[in-house]
Amino acid sequence: IILFCSDHGDMLGERGLWFKMCFYEGAARVPLMMSGKGIKAGLIETPASNLDVAPTLCDLAGIDMSGIAPWTDGLSLLPLAAGKERSAPVLMEYAAEGSYAPMVAIREGKYKFVHCELDPPQLFDLVADPRELDNLATNPAYADLVSAFMEKVRARWDMAGFDAAVRESQARRWVVYPALRNGAYYPWEFQPLQKASERYMRNHMNLDNLEESKRYPRGE
Question: E-assigned strands of 89-140?
């Protein structure tokens, strides 16, 4: 089984924005591809989420999750791959750099609804407006749809509790941050460490083996 995805996109200067830090398609829409036995090749345009990765892999591995208390969000993508409809909307959260309060979004069908307690709501029709230039949340004709999305937001998230939890986590991490930067600090980014003395032609290599491996045809 091969599954390829990305954690986020990048605005690349679009709309004057850089990095991720928003729910516009440039930052939120990422590739998600999978290949394996029984998965037919094709393009699925139904929205999905990285939260779906764990239940999908469990489904592909034959792990029965029925009757077990939910331990992860998301849905298996195998029904979508088989041509069925998604049974729940895609949910998004952001509460990191560049945000003064947690932001959440719901992608359901052709609509994307974005909510933040400090900002006006956003509603986009991604079929008619793929560049997300027309915020329908200010259009009276969509007032009922905005209200319906807000009901889903309130049912899913306690925004005040969300905000408080983030700030408590930040405070806890600030307590230990100076200590973590001292001594044997090691960055979290993946770094394929290699010994420079063994990367090139050095005395640790057998010269005969080296010359044989570098000749073409080999061994001549």
Answer: 90-94, 103-108, 111-116, 119-125
The 8-class DSSP code of residue 142 comes to G
Write the pLDDT tens digit of every residue in 74-119. 889 999 988 899 989 999 999 988 889 999 999 999 999 999 999 9
Query: Count of CB atoms within 10 A of residue 59's CB?
Result: 17
Q: pTM of this prediction?
A: 0.79
Residues 90, 107 contacting (CB under 8 angstroms): yes
pLDDT score, position 219 = 55
Helices (H), 128-188: 143-156, 159-180
Smallest CA-to-CA distance from 112 within 101, 127, 97, 96 is with 127
SS3 string of 33-72? EEECCCCCCCCCCCCCCHHHHHHHHHHHCCCCCCCCCCCC
Find the angle CA(178)-CA(180)-CA(181) to the nearest 5 degrees: 65
60's CB contacts (< 8 A; 6+ apart) are 1, 34, 36, 78
Using the Cα atoms of residue 19, residue 20, residue 24 and residue 29 in order, give the sign of their dihedral: positive
